[in-house]
Amino acid sequence: MVTQSHIEWTQTTWNPVTGCTKVSQGCKNCYAERMAKRLEAMKVARYRDGFKVTLHEDLLDAPLSWKAPRLVFVNSMSDLFHPDVPFEFINNVFETMKSCPRHTFQILTKRSERLLELSDKLPWSDNIWMGVSVENSEVINRITDLQYVPASVRFLSIEPLIGPILSLPLKGIHWVIVGGESGPGSRTMEGIWVENIHQQCILAHVPFFFKQWGGKRKDLTGRELKGRTYDEMPISYTCQR
Questions:
Q1: How far apart are CA 133 and CA 161, in angstroms?
Q2: Where are the domains of the chain?
Q3: How far apart are alpha carbons 97 and 61 in whole angstroms?
């Protein structure tokens, strides 16, 4: 699946893998699972197995045909480092990204242990950004794993933020995104949690992107923090614009 994205910090999504399984509290109200079930009910062929991990080999070369540079979120509907995704397939995804230097690719995982295990075997290039999803202080280990990964940009998606994180290990981290949970059953994000992370980013000179407050109607709660919008990006991308 290749689509234009409404996610504020990217432009396009590319899903050579769909489907996933839950690993922590951040997965409780997974938007991708909710969407996959909807697409399965609509008889969309790629989701005939619902949210089961599925490899789409016919999409591996899709970015090669895109002429204009794009900011691309890889696997918005899955996790590239899920244990059911073979190393060979992950490597093929990386080879495609490396072959498209005009595009910038953003990958997120909650499986930081497998990311670290495989990282020195993968063909990294400057246009591949690697991030981990972090929802509270109980999964800080994902950040320490990421710090050892040889990506040109290492970033954090702290979404959904469901608890305070008073001490973020930000050494070697180039970007932080924060957002609240949205949709049915969404858990509340406290403003003080966001402000604390913002202050940590200021002190560490790390760009800060505030995605949303979230809630059942995220369009009503908006994106402003203390009266302004934060859309900061890593300097490597800012310089390209």
A1: 10
A2: 2-238
A3: 9
Ramachandran angles phi, psi of 164, nearest 5°: -70, 145
Bridge partners (DSSP) listed for residue 167: none
CB atoms closer than 10 angstroms to residue 69: 14
DSSP sequence for 8-68: TT-SEEE-SEEB----SGGGTT-HHHHHHHHHHHTT-GGGTTTTS-EE-GGGTTGGGG--S
How many separate helices (H) and strands (E) can be counted in the chain? 7, 10
Please report, as a single letter, which amino acid is at residue 174. Answer: H
Residue 223's nearest CA partner among 206, 208, 236 is 208
Average pLDDT, the chain: 95
Q: Residue 136's Cα: distance from chain center in Å? A: 16
Q: What is the pLDDT of residues 36-50, one digit of tens each?
A: 999 999 999 999 999
Judge if the upstream peptide bond of residue 16 is cis by omega within 30 degrees of 0: no
